[in-house]
Design goal:
Pfam families: Oxidored_molyb
CATH superfamily of one domain: Oxidoreductase, molybdopterin-binding domain
Helix content: 10-25%
Distance between the termini: 39 Å
Organism: Actinomadura alba
CATH class of one domain: Alpha Beta
Shape: globular
Protein name: Molybdopterin-dependent oxidoreductase
Order of helices and strands: HEEEEHEEHEEHEEEE
Strand order of the largest sheet: 4-3-12-7-8
CATH topology of one domain: Sulfite Oxidase, Chain A, domain 2
Amino acid sequence: MLGLGAAGVAVGAAVQERVDRALSPINRFLPVGGGFRYYSVVDRVEPRDAGDYTLTVSGRVRDRRTFTLADLRALPQTRIIRDFQCVTGWRVPKVPWAGVALPDLLDAVGASPAARAVRFRSFDGAYTESLTMAQARRRDVLIATDMLDGPVSHDHGGPVRLFVAPMYGYKSLKWLDGIEVGDKVVPGYWEERGYDIDAWVGRSNGRDDEPT
């Protein structure tokens, strides 16, 4: 038992070391708030006022659209309570999230039935992520406008961020401002640095604990 415990600590330390290498020499800020650690992959991310915020959805869609925050809030809303699990080992349990379920947003723009992937872009200018269309169609993948029972703060990736409930936190892209529907998964910022493209937490393989 002691040997297994030591092995677990070593694996966690190795993962953290990989994150440290990826984040330096760029800025890394880790004030602890409510159990969260805050990361940025660029030197500075300028806050975006909620009143000026826009999200553009393009690619293989019937209607290319640009949504304001008010537009997103006018769409059907989904609320879930899920843990936020970082690949480095820390977890914040039972976080309230709310926003537009990604399937509802894809339906609103008429995403092509033949499309196979969805790519996400951050307004930090560096961070990208992708999901397969099957993953993007889950009801527990949110375009999150609220968390912790209030608007998503800038440090948490607001005004709007992605939340992929069944996957590790690096898939939940912060400072979301672009979504592109396409034909293939494009490795994102962290995948280009050696992380898994499919980042399921635990052994669920994304099949269980999905909201209705």
